[in-house]
Design a protein that fits this description.
Strand order of the largest sheet: 1-2-3
Helix content: over 70%
Keywords: Antibiotic resistance, Membrane, Transmembrane, Transmembrane helix
CATH topology of the largest domain: Growth Hormone, Chain: A
CATH superfamily of the largest domain: MFS general substrate transporter like domains
Number of domains: 3
Protein name: MFS transporter
Subcellular location: Cell membrane
CATH class of the largest domain: Mainly Alpha
Pfam family, one: MFS_1
Membrane topology: Multi-pass membrane protein
CATH architecture of the largest domain: Up-down Bundle
Strand content: under 5%
């Protein structure tokens, strides 16, 4: 066989204006000249741009999915009035999403490991968009609840893939940066819910009312779907059989744990649910240890670093969620702010979070963040007890800025420290476990700190006729619980 010298040409590959080298080889085969053109090799800079574009797409979907867990909260009164819904039905609008999302996360992560993270992510985004549209056009409360459950399940399919995509697509310092951005998006989404929800209600585009909170997902999700479909690379974990028994037991345990506090069923129901969840989790652990392809590889939970990291996640996010709840009650019911103004008061906290989140990539930043967080939380009781009602907003802002700065320094690198050393084959399961811990912490924080707030207030939050002094004492006393969780977060980080 005669091989002629290869010629090198410059080409515009797939109209992306990427300069590539194309090698053309000519070979004699059976007396005929045949041209063989090898696949163009993209320039390293082009690979990097594609990788970061893919990250932007999956983070956009992450923000959309996490935002939808809280953005509906400020729309509940409008939903109740428009659909003539009972209080239990509007509670189920939020609870349906939260519970479906929580119980499906680990299974969703395993689906990505088995069938491909890119493929499952795109399916999850598409299902989320369809469920969002169903929520927006729901003619009744039961239809809206069913659509919200479907939306939560779609989020459980979509979101666990993000961490796996990051783990597969980035290494070294680039992975630390990508995980920092991911942690920042999680925190910003939890803060932005009230701001976005209040702004949409105040703007009321096309007289859509609460339905705009769901329709806003359509352009965001469509953009994420198109960009991710063109840029995210496929990856898989171990192609093991899906553990349906383990998935069912884990879902039952999470329902027992989360259903009573999410539906506000009272202290006895919460205690009974906690006992049932512990019993089911004991059975789940026993079953999983005997499985050749478990839903959650027990080797993950055998690592002290991961267990301590999950405990840190539980303490950090439970304190944050509880503080956001009591602050919203204090601003709206205590100080008389409307939902939009209340959301805007959260804005400095969110801006401080965004400003510091990208700086937190080392353990020192985590410790600095917990220090700022505790100082900010300690300042809240002093303000609400000592400052007159009309002047409190201005005095609260410095404390809220410290809280946001501290949360940003912690949230961004915390994800990376928990996942450090996880086998890529277990990335989907680890991501599902981490997100489940985050969601469990949010629900537990709202239940425990919210219940304590109502106990100190000695009335149902938001009830008419409750004096401002009662809200001031309840806010001051309950903030101490969030402060204790911030201190626990710092102790767990110090022991790493």
């Amino acid at each position: 066989m005669l091989v002629l010298p290869a010629s090198v040409i410059t080409a515009d590959y797939h109209r992306r204006r990427i300069r590539t080298w194309t090698r053309c080889q000519r070979r004699w085969r059976n007396g005929h000249m045949t041209a063989v053109i090898t696949q163009p090799a993209p320039v390293p800079g082009a690979v990097a741009r594609r990788r970061w574009t893919a990250l932007a797409a999956v983070l956009l979907a992450t923000f959309m999915g996490l935002l939808d867990a809280s953005v509906v909260t400020v729309s509940v009164p409008s939903i109740q009035q428009d659909l003539h819904a009972s209080f239990g039905e509007v509670q189920s609008v939020s609870a349906g999403y939260t519970l479906a999302y929580a119980v499906g996360l680990v299974t969703g992560g395993r689906l990505g490991d088995r069938h491909g993270r890119r493929r499952v992510f795109l399916v999850g985004v598409a299902l989320f968009l369809l469920a969002s549209l169903a929520c927006a056009v729901a003619p009744s409360a039961p239809a809206l609840i069913a659509a919200r459950v479907a939306q939560g399940l779609a989020a459980a399919v979509m979101l666990p893939q993000v961490l796996s995509i990051i783990q597969h697509g980035f290494t070294g310092p680039a992975r630390a940066t990508a995980l920092g951005l991911y942690g920042a998006v999680i925190g910003l989404a939890s803060i932005a819910g009230q701001i976005v929800g209040g702004a949409l209600l105040a703007w009321n585009p096309c007289d859509l009312g609460w339905r705009s909170a769901f329709l806003v997902n359509l352009p965001i999700g469509a953009l994420a779907l198109v960009v991710a479909g063109r840029t995210v690379q496929e990856s898989r974990g171990a192609r093991a059989r899906l553990d349906l028994l383990g998935a069912g037991l884990l879902a039952l345990a999470l329902l027992a744990l989360l259903l009573p506090p999410v539906l506000d069923q009272g202290r006895p129901a919460v205690i009974a649910g906690l006992a049932m969840a512990a019993a089911v989790l004991a059975v789940f652990t026993r079953v999983e240890r005997r499985r050749s392809s478990p839903l959650i590889p027990m080797r993950l939970l055998a690592q002290r670093r991961i267990v301590r990291g999950l405990l840190t996640v539980l303490a950090f996010y439970a304190g944050n969620a509880g503080f956001f709840l009591l602050l919203a009650y204090h601003l709206q019911s205590g100080l008389g702010q409307n939902p939009l103004h209340s959301g805007l008061i959260f804005a400095p906290l969110g801006l401080a979070f965004a400003a510091t989140s990208l700086a937190g990539r080392r353990l020192g930043a985590l410790r600095t963040g917990t220090l700022l967080l505790t100082i900010g939380l300690a300042g809240v009781p002093a303000v609400v007890l000592a400052v007159p009602q009309g002047d409190q907003v201005g005095w609260l802002l410095p404390a809220l800025i410290l809280v946001g700065a501290g949360q940003g320094l912690v949230a961004a690198p915390l994800i990376g420290t928990v996942l450090a050393g996880v086998d890529p084959a277990d990335a989907g399961a680890a991501g599902g476990v981490l997100l489940t811990a985050t969601q469990t912490a949010n629900a537990a924080g709202v239940a425990l700190i919210g219940g304590l707030f109502a106990h100190v207030l000695d009335a149902a939050p938001g009830s008419p006729g409750v004096p401002f002094t009662a809200y001031a004492h309840a806010t001051a006393g309950t903030t101490l619980a969030a402060l204790a969780l911030a201190l626990l977060t710092g102790l767990l980080l110090r022991s790493r």
